[in-house]
Amino acid sequence: MAGTDAPLATAPEIDIMPEGPPAVILVRPQLGENIGMCARAMMNCGLSDLRIVDPRDGWPNERAHAASSGADTIIDNARIFETTEDAVADLQFVLATTARARDSAQAVFTPREAAPELHRRHHDGIATGVIFGPEAKGLANEDVMQANAIVAAPLNPAFKSLNLAQAVFCIGYEWLQAGIDETTWRGTTTTRESRPATKQELIGLFEHLEQELDDCGFLRPPEKRPTMVRNIRNMLHRAEFDEQEVRTFRGMISGLTRTHLRGRKNRA
User: Sign (positive/negative) of CA torsion 7, 170, 20, 115?
Assistant: First the structure.
């Protein structure tokens, strides 16, 4: 397969590329060459929206261009972000790739299961993305918390390590195949009147709720707070709020807070 763009005699031609692919978010990638090879894998599979969080060797990076093997458009249009939260702020359904077991209640998909989920949501007008971690250690728990669910490839249990471009290609290939076989995801249009909430709107809700929980002493003891926050965020992610539901939920929090403050004043 390497070194040629000519179609193989045994490989069926793809007449229609799936439209509106998910964003590919590379979190703290270490080498420009790896970013370039990810761009190449993306172009192989019809993906185009590359977002890079805090690249170690800076940006732009000529080594990324050299390793992309002609996927220059993806490299040239890549967007750079300081944090994972910033990179997914405008997205509404996000998956995080990992090979490690996580202390999390998030749903776990294989790449083949994830692809129809991404297509279904795109078909409903939902902005989607997939997060990939750094080469050496993978995603931190704080990065995984930005996602609705996890993607884990069923690989050799004794050796699950993939390089960054392999991971991107694994997801991209299943996306491409699911786009060809529309029977795996068509016919599931939602009837919501309000659009799904963006990650930025959800983060606002999470921070609002966590501030009030801190103030009332719920998130204690301090050493357990990170796990408690992660569990609460995962629980709320599973609800897949729309933007009206986010506003309603924040209104409920504010209402309860005002009631609590009035009660304290009356008792005083």
Answer: positive
Q: How far is CA 206 from CA 150, 160, 234, in A?
A: 19, 33, 10
Whether the upstream peptide bond of residue 222 has omega within 30° of 0, thus cis, is: no
DSSP one-letter string for 173-223: HHHHHHHH-GGGT-S-----SSPBPPHHHHHHHHHHHHHHHHHTT-S-SGG
Residues in the chain: 268
Which residue do the tokens 């924040």 mark?
250
- For 11, half-sphere exposure in the C-beta direction (CA atoms, 13 angstrom radius) is 8
Grouping H, G, I as helix, E, B as strand and the rest as coil, residue 84 is helix
d(C-alpha 34, C-alpha 166), whole Å:
10
In this predicted model, what pLDDT tens digit does every residue of 165-221 receive, in sequence order? 999 999 999 999 998 877 665 655 555 678 889 999 999 999 999 999 999 899 999
Inter-axis angle of helices 32-44 and 164-180, nearest 10? 10
User: Measured between alpha carbons, how far is 35 from 51 in angstroms, rounded to an integer?
Assistant: 10
CATH number of the domain at 23-184, out of 3.40.1280.10, 3.60.40.10, 3.40.50.150, 1.10.1040.10?
A: 3.40.1280.10
Instruction: Look up tokens 């991209």; give the residue.
Output: 172
The tokens describing 21, both together, are: 């692919």
Question: Rounded to an integer, what distance in angstroms lies between the CA atom of residue 157 and that of residue 218?
Answer: 39
Tokens, residue 259: 């009631």
How much is the pTM? Answer: 0.79
Which among 4, 3, 20 has a CA at the least distance from the CA of 92?
Answer: 20
